[in-house]
Amino acid sequence: MTMLSIRNLHAAVEGKAILKGLSLEVMAGEVHAIMGPNGSGKSTLAHVLSGREGYEVTEGSIVFEGKDLLAMSPEERARDGVFLAFQYPVEIPGVNNVYMLKAALNAIRRHRGEPELDAVDFLRLIKEKAMLVQMDERFLSRAVNEGFSGGEKKRNEILQMAVLEPKLALLDETDSGLDIDALRVVANGVNQLRRSDRAIVMITHYQRLLEHIVPDFVHVLAGGRIVRSGGRDLAVTLEERGYDWLKEEAA
Amino acid sequence: MSTAATANLLPEFERVSASLPGDARVAERRRAALARFAASGFPSQRDEAWRYTSTAGLARRKHSVAIDTPVNLARGRAALAAAGAWDGPQCVFVDGSHRPDLSNAVAAAGLRIRPFAAAVAEDGRIGERFAGWGGEELSPMISLNAAFAADGVVIDVADGAEHGEPLRLLFVMTADVRDRAVFPRVIVRAGQRSSLAVVEQYVGESAADGFTNTVTQIHAGEGARVTHYRLQDESPKAYHVGNLIVSQERASEVVSHSLSFGALLARQDIHIMLSGPESSVTLNGLYMAEGRQHVDHHTRIDHFEPTTRSEEYYKGILGGHGRGVFNGKVVVHQHAIKTDAQQSNKNLLLSNDAEVDTKPELEIYADDVKCAHGATVGQLDEDALFYLRSRGLDESAARALLTYAFAGDILGRLGIARLQKELAARIAGRLPGAAEFLEAV
Amino acid sequence: MATSANDVEALISKGYKAGFITEVESDTAPPGLNEDVIRLISSKKNEPEWLLEWRLGAFRQWLKKEAPRWAHVRHQPIDYQAISYYSAPKSRKDGPKSLDEVDPKLLETYEKLGIPLREREILAGVAVDAVFDSVSVATTFREKLAEAGVIFCSFSEAVQNHPELVRKYLGSVVPVADNFYAALNSAVFSDGSFCYIPKGVRCPMELSTYFRINAAKTGQFERTLIVAEEGSYVSYLEGCTAPMRDENQLHAAVVELVAMKDARIKYSTVQNWYPGDEEGRGGIYNFVTKRGECRGENSQISWTQVETGSAITWKYPSCVLTGDNSTGEFYSVALTNNCQQADTGTKMIHIGRNTRSTIISKGISAGRGQNAYRGLVKVTKGADNARNYTQCDSLLIGPKCGAHTFPYIEVKNPTARVEHEATTSKVSEDQLFYCRSRGISREDALNMIVNGFCREVFKELPMEFAVEAQKLLGVSLEGAVG
After folding, report:
1. Per residue in B125-144, pLDDT tens?
2. In this complex, which of B349, B369, B378 lies closest to C424 when CB atoms are compared?
3. N or C: which end of chain B has fewer CB within 10 A?
4. How far is the C-alpha of C429 from the C-alpha of C413, rounded, in Å?
């Protein structure tokens, strides 16, 4: 069944059109990769999906599980199961990592009509999930992302994803800034979270990530639109030939 | 109520007022300015802005506003030689009076430089401006200057005119007359997208005990770039009170350098008004005091408009019985969102009797801002000292080297290589034991 | 004013009688302040002659002083002759009979703070049963303290039972003429707390005014004196956690701390006096002088304050570091919302050698609140190797508030190291968005971020206080989310 349906999406930042008629259908259980050169609109797509301010949708629609996603606040989207792993996770000094995550999980559980987890149960859960991304427990008690290295921040994002169990996970340049070992750990974590009722949309510049998380579909974003879709092999072609030939085709 | 301390300046005004330049309207404004000064007098330490700086020495003395006394040119030349060579354009003032015979101001396209006295005489509006526009509410010292300003310079830069070569304004004080008081006024009007660099330099004979009360007004038009230097190196007996008032229009960039080495009492008031969006200012400062010197910098930056930016770097080196005062105020007004203001003041205390008082202030009435300030007081790093000594430097040389290095980033921002070199030598010359590494500088 | 001795005599006796008569009738002195009123206060409290003279001395100093105008706050001039300076504890029948009669908004706040029902009754001034649980609790505590030799009682009791201690230390840290409000307090102080920790004693429990119920009614001119003898330790919690409904009432308290050799005093305050309404009507003027002296070597005084209440706060809990190797600390959270104004900070006066001080100040401005940090770090000539570190951060919530920083640093010793850092910024939209994208509401996210911002200060508070402070912050920030 269709989980996410993006139709003819146009979006602008500070009056400048970035997305110009993007359409995409994502079914439960699928893993999609959206690739594209710098400035093609990849991050804008991620931000529009997560509900960030400053991105104006001028045309088109986004329907998530039958609901108008664009009408929802960022927290409503999260509670309904949309998760964005940030490209640059922000540091929040003084706010304990576990505390934040517990507040988030319980807000989501309340929304689902499930009982809130108490401190003991939550700690058990998070310790179990932390193993998934090989995250040292001492990071759990630190402030959110504060003083984390690039790799630690990305692991923390995947840890949050594992705890919050979203239906739709958007990974925005999750591979950027990771060395090969960290990339493997993060990818491994994501792979373990692949499920038949969960969809994953990866946004990436390089196909390197796709060697570790093999997508069902690959889309090329250029000039604010998806200019080509295909399977895993499309990514390989891109790696060999670069983006320029597609840009030419698009023009 | 205590009576305002005005020393003998009110009668002095009556004595010299007929000799001051300007028409009847200017004279009227001078008198009004004098009245404002008379009402408050020299600031007292009960004024927050003067709590660390006493003007008692000024309030006590018998000032001599000797504009009617002929300039002793021979003494002026001698003092001039000590100020360092300058092969670019310059205007020279001896004991407050412009000396065309010593100046070599160039006439370049789009650049108009006029002696203040002449400019006021031929253009009444300048007279109105200097005595009405100059932010007198900031300090009674500005009113005092407005009343007595007899000479100086008025610089106009036409729209789009760019002048890379710095213009020097050299003020020489002789010891010819005791307790002399001079009141230079500099007005700079930089047109849209113009650029200009002005170096104000103050020097004096070693016995010169004069009082310089100077006011510089700069107006930077849209997109203009103005760099201003004030190098205060008067005799150790002198009193120096300097004011700099800058108003900036959209996207203008101003850089102010204030370096203070001389005078018994030196006070600089720098007031920047960022009145146009996207305007920016950098304040760079270094002060040194030794013996019984007292040096005080008060800076105030008003962010009136959105997306304005200010940076401030001030350092002080205090030895002997010297006392350094720094007060850096940044005001972000409600309208001025997206302001970025950074300020730093660092002080080095080199002797048991040296003293420093610093007060960085932020007053913020807008929420979308990024402001930070930092202030430190300390001494040379013992580890660094030890390291240098372990490499064979004797202690005084090691101290001199580290002190010199402390001032290094301020010097590094000066932008004029010639000045940088001269001032480096000036600083090194004040550090005992610097001889060893001076050659290497 | 030249008056003959006889005239003065006549005046005094006349005034005194008048005051007394009024007092008998209504238990309250008529509004106004003069020497008669002070004599009345002193006599009602059965004070020794020296204390009356001390009060009168303070009053005469006060007459010569002007209210400070340098603070970054604005208010209508206070009519000191319109205030009544003596009011005996009101009889219970004046108060509301039950919680049903109390303003529901106030009760809502208590509810959110998680204050137990019984406590809410006292806070709201409900006439409670004479055999109230806490009274016996207080007694138990007293016994335990007495065993350890700790004296902890109301100031009035101390004057009666330990006059020599009171006389020795009263005004020794905050001189009567220190400032306008301190002089006023010295002249008319009503009651307060007295605490004496003998040599070598570690106070067996945290002392709190909560356990001394009568302290809740000590009124607007409190006087607190804490003396920690050599090698002793005490942690004192000042709970002004009760939002009190008052119309621009003046609170001019004085707190003096004395720490002798190797002694340590930890003084924590959570201040939540009534801040006035959204439009700035009403609320407490909290003009307080708090100062501690580290008199002995190796002594330490720590001030921790969470200031969320009051219409205007004017207070600078300070440390005079006289003893060699002594340490002063100041941890502060000050929040202003709606029309609240705060001008608060500290003074660290380094006098002894090897003295250290730390200042951590977190200011939060929301609504139309104005929040100023004002601090002085002074290193005197003899204070070799003094160290100070100051971190002063301000958070802005909304376009109409203000945050101001006025640090004074005065150094007269070349071996000192003083470091001051300050930042001001608005709550980061990135942080808010990050939390929201994890499912947390904007309001909760804001609370979380503000609490995180204050964390360095909260961790200095005793556990229960820290929890309360966090909740308080949430309640105080209500309506601040745009």
Report:
1. 776 666 555 567 778 999 99
2. B369
3. N
4. 44
